[in-house]
# Entry
Amino acid sequence: MRTLIKRALTSESAQESITIKGWVRTRRDSKAFSFLEMNDGSCLANIQCIADAGIPGYDDVAKMTTGAAVGITGKLIESPGKGQKWEIQATALELIGESPEDYPLQKKGHTPEFMRSISHLRPRANLYGAVFRMRSRMSQAVNRFFDERDFTYVHTPIITASDCEGAGEMFRVTTQDPASDKPQKPENDFFKKSTYLTVSGQLEGEAYATALSNIYTFGPTFRAENSNTTRHACEFWMIEPEMAFCDLEGDMDLAEEFVKYLVQDALDNNEGDLEIFNKFVDKGLIERLKHVAKKPFQRVTYTEAVEILQNSGQTFEYPVEWGINLQSEHERYLTEEHFNCPTTVYNYPKSVKPFYMRTNDDGKTVTAMDLLVPGIGEIVGGAQREERMDVLQANMKEHNLSEEDYWWYMDLRKYGTCPHAGFGMGFERMLMFVTGMKNIRDVIPFARTPGSCEF
# Structure
């Protein structure tokens, strides 16, 4: 079994024999020996290897260019150089895979746009390796958070017949041949009805919350929204907890606790990756994350938020008035300039929210909440769900939704209805927040956006 560079660099003592396999970052040759800098993706740091001429495999050293896959066997010894504790004194080299001169990741700066064009190679770069290690650690932290609180992990379907958000921005799933002369009718399709890629697992999650009390879903969702912004993608991952016997207050409590937990986990377990973000992406990132982890979040009603924005003296691209959906510029003003901390806005106008949100006693607002963070805006959106059958029926009628299509969802109100609440967190937006990356395309391994489905 080969030794990972991560393990080698954190070793407590020198080792007589060690084998490292990875990719060459740089090589420097002298008359009687060569220095090779290697990285295997297990951590940000490279390890330096000194190979003396004449050892087995040294005849291939000239082919061990940047990007080449190599294996090095040798002794882990203390390094006399600055900035590193250990290096490898090689006893044998192995050229595993050559890398010709047109390897695109040479030792120079590359733009994010260029790196997106080589998404299959960009995780080999220091910055993107750090991003996707962080994505992995954040995924584990998500599951750990809910497991520690006795939530059940539910895998909701990717193919659905329900439009959770009611916006109609869904990808249709069909097996019908558009070139066929046969009529393209839903009843002729594979499922004998119109089906789509899911935009949310929430509705199905409610079914399980009303049986298992506290559940969460964590998986891919899809939205056919033609938005070419830095915050939108057509395929992204959502985390959606749902809690029975929970109201809006409890929903906001959990969302705020969740964000703090993930931020603290990034600070505690980043293994050096945060430093590269702080140095090359966002120089104030670490301090901002520490600020978020320690400082209480602010809460404000939608009506109060509108008044703050209207009295701010700021000129916004989208004018502010009661009844609009808050835009990113409004959300960022609240978090970055007015409150200087993450802020939860709640009790939104009923007219701008989906049918399933519980109507407040004023008849104008619903128990909806959005958790906003500096630099991003909305990172969590949730609500207490409408558990009253008659009110839900009226809401569906207002949204021109057929009760027949949602018969099973109505059953949840028919049989043992109870207050329940939940929220959705865009996983990629959370990653943007903890890495400082400014474009959602840079925290998704292979981004799917309007007009682009490469790789």
